Write the structure tokens for this entry.
Amino acid sequence: MNQKTKMVKKKKNTTSKTQGKQTEKKLSKLPKFNFYWIYGIVVFFMVSMLFSNEMGALSVETNRQTLIQEYIKNKDVAKIEIIQNKNIAKIFIKESALSEHRHEAVSKPLFGEGLNKGPHYYIKIGTSEVFETKVEEAQESFRLTESERVQIFYNNEQSIWDSIWAWMPFIFLIGIWLFFMRRMSGGGGSGPGSQIFNIGKSQAQLYDKDTEVKTTFKDVAGLEGAKEEVQEIVDFLKNPKKYTKLGGKIPRGALLVGPPGTGKTLLAKAVAGEAQVPFFSLSGSDFVEMFVGVGASRVRDLFKKAKDKSPAIIFIDEIDAIGRARGKNQMTGSNDERENTLNQLLTEMDGFGTNDHVIVIAATNRADILDRALVRAGRFDRQIFVDLPELNERKEIFEVHLAPLKIEAKLDLNFLAKQTPGFSGADISNMCNEAALIAARKDKKFVEKQDFLDAVDRIIGGLEKKNKIISKKEREVIAFHEAGHATVSWMLEHAAPLVKVTIVPRGKSLGAAWYLPEERQITTREQMMDEMCAALGGRAAEKIIFGKVSTGALSDLEKVTRQATAMVTVYGLSDKIGNISYYDSSGQNSSFNKPYSEQTARTIDEEVRAITEEAYARALQVLEENKESLSKLAHELLKKEVIFREDLEILFGKRLWDSNEKITLNPSKASSNEDTKDPAPEELKKNEKESV
């Protein structure tokens, strides 16, 4: 029996525990206390009070005959109140008469206990004069004494709804004001209006040791020089005594400069991940606002927060949005606010003390337009140039971007790196992603080598348009045009080695010839002239074969004109102009004022024309000497639509100037045959600016 009782007790304990947990869960599910409940209760009591003031008590509708024949005749009425604006007569019964059976329905109040103080009855009347006359006549007929007579009062009143409607505009305005006040102060959420009072506050994102930033220096492939400089800055903030004990001072700022897509912002993200110090990140456009003084206020607030959390790093991406050189576009007056923001930034950067331990890192691809006061020593002490990746750096970048992809085991990274000269880190990332999409589109289990080749074709040339309607004559012209490019480039020493020729329309191009350009740091006049000849080979082929030219050489003419102008005005490769360069690397000179005279401008035009005509004449000569091979190549193109390097070796023989290094059959640069509306392809612009 004892064991059974113990078991029962245990069961009761367990059941009580489970019940307790269930009740706790139920209690947790109950709605939490909200301060708005108090508002609701207050409003409810106010409305009930208003209703009670209006009704007073329970009031029953009656008629004039009952009033006269029963209530006045029996001397029950204490007084009558006529509401003139509503045509209603309120009847008040004497306390002594409320105990009668006929007034039982109105003797008790609506709320509480005791007697109903009235009004007890009400009558809808026509006019007050007629009603009063009838009451007086009834009192006369009943021969009531002066003390027994019913007193009649006149009054006007408004209902609760009339009051509400009268006060509704004010209530609405007060509600709107309270709503916006809560939103502006940040209490109403994080919407657009919540920041209106904080408009002058910094919009920077804060990354600190508690914030998980997954990007580190391991994710930044290549950029060894830039990483070394940035790592030194991070190390200084972590271990300042290591440098200050020798008398060194903290650098004020570091400016990351380079073409788009080279990894400037990625490098800054890696700094945020590596540095165990507060990292404030924002864009230059975050300082721009429609209100006057907001930009300068945000700059002050940003540096105040950074100093409070020092040691810290401030990263401003696209600083050219506020750091543009002052004094430009004064006619419009549109840059006054931007200049104020820049002035405040200059002041804050120059106002640092040696113990502030705050470093500013900025990134831009328009360093030439920045204000000189911003890039001077003492503000941005270091300018770190983030250039396009070299061969080995591209291989490292491929290793990073291929890590999350399922690729074939035999894929050669050296092959991919050699096929992408002039590609930035962003271009390589896009190429890897496009290759994965192409492989998925073909239902492959792995991303193969051919997928990467197709990805480069897709990125550079565009999507194939095999269904594009092209007449037989136009197709023949395109074939000879592309064959002209291929022939001239094959026969000239310094022209880029040809990889593939196609007359299949891609993107805006009606045909294309792909080359694998040599990676070089300097370029001679002979090399530039050979490149221009190869570009004009298509137009020259049209002239030789058909005796006339078409608009398909638009991109070629644009490239050649740009190169010839650079030879004359930038690189000093013209004998008439001499060793003079009109290129302004600082970007401070106005584009409205030319740095040369009208006579020099005519000479420049003549030299540009002479150089282009020289290149065109040489292209004609090469094609005339190889006219038969040109025709064979064009007919092969019409038959196969795509011609590779091996086919050219069969027609022309091996190239005499090729290096021993094997060139693979993959495009990386294209010269396109386009109509007059098509711009030059982006591939031709990648080597536009070269160091001399």
Remarks:
- The chain has a mean pLDDT of 76.
